[in-house]
Amino acid sequence: MDVIREVELEAPLADVWELLTDDDELSAWLGDAVTFDPQPGGAGTFEEDGRLRRAVVEEVDTGRRLAFRWWLDGDEESASRVAFTLTETDDGTRLTVTETFEAEASARDRSNAAAVAWASRLLGLEWRCIDAPAPALVVVARG
Amino acid sequence: MTPPKADRAGAVFEALSDPTRRTVMRSVAEDGPVTATQLAARLPVTRQAVAKHLDALAAAGLVMSHRAGREMRYELTPEPLSDAMAWMAEVGGAWDRRLDRLALRARSRRDT
After folding, report:
1. How far apart are the first and last CA of chain A?
2. At CA B78, angle to CA B75 and CA B79, rounded to 5?
3. Contact B102/A15, CB-based, under 8 Å?
4. Contact check, Cβ <8 Å, A15/B109
5. I need a labelling partner for A94 at 20 to 30 A (CA). Which of A5, A10, A78, B42 fits?
């Protein structure tokens, strides 16, 4: 099951890449205190709201894509995969965040989007896509 | 800690990934409490298939059954659905907050 966010950033791609890979920059947005080694196999720690997450970097394609697995310290079953994808736009940079949860159930299942949409309707809930620049909530099946 | 919410939500989404099962669940939601025989009469599905789908839904906690005479009656238990939705909203909300901070950071770099 994937949770996807997309955001348009008013900054050049090289700046955004730094925001995604530099400890001090990451500590300003992805957690309160972050250490991060942006190379394949590199380790990371993220403290956010008093909770510690650990990470291992899986994919680095400088300026394009960065992916890591992270999990709550002491709870490896909480592991998920986070992928950042960058695209240059006229006004700056588009960042897409995909967090993939690997619960055994969802890994096999390609119709989660339909299931979630259906479940939402049943509950009388409605996911709203908010206009840019606020990111939209998208729930998609694994492809 | 309670079982990881991602797993519980995963079980719900998995149970709902089958279109026929969703149809069965919708019928239970609309007409419950109902028996498998009543559902089979309403849906283009055999009683045996209905019973199998009801088992899967019950395993995910989405329906519960109680005995009424010779048959089991099924009704909806919406809590796991709400939990799954709440979990998704929580994960999404965390990213919203992080990306708000990131956008601010990106803008402040440009302005300095």
Report:
1. 10
2. 130
3. no
4. yes
5. A78
Domain at A2-140, CATH from 3.30.559.10, 1.10.10.10, 3.30.530.20, 3.60.15.10: 3.30.530.20
The ranges assigned to domains in chain A are 2-140
Summarize pLDDT for A41-90 with one digit per residue, the tens.
Answer: 999 999 988 999 999 999 999 999 999 999 999 988 788 899 999 999 99
Q: How far apart are CA B47 and CA B37, in angstroms?
A: 6
Residue B84's domain comprises: 5-111
- Are the C-beta atoms of residues A119 and B74 closer than 8 Å to each other? no
pLDDT in tens, B90-112: 888 889 899 999 999 998 887 76
Give the predicted TM-score (pTM) of the model. Answer: 0.66
* B14 contacts on A by Cβ (under 8 Å): 105-106, 108-109, 115
Chain B residue set in contact with A, beta carbons under 8 Å: 1, 4, 6-7, 9-14, 16-19, 22, 25-26, 29, 78, 81-82, 84-85, 88, 91-92, 95-96, 98-99, 101-107, 109-110
* Interface predicted TM-score (ipTM) of this complex, two decimals: 0.73
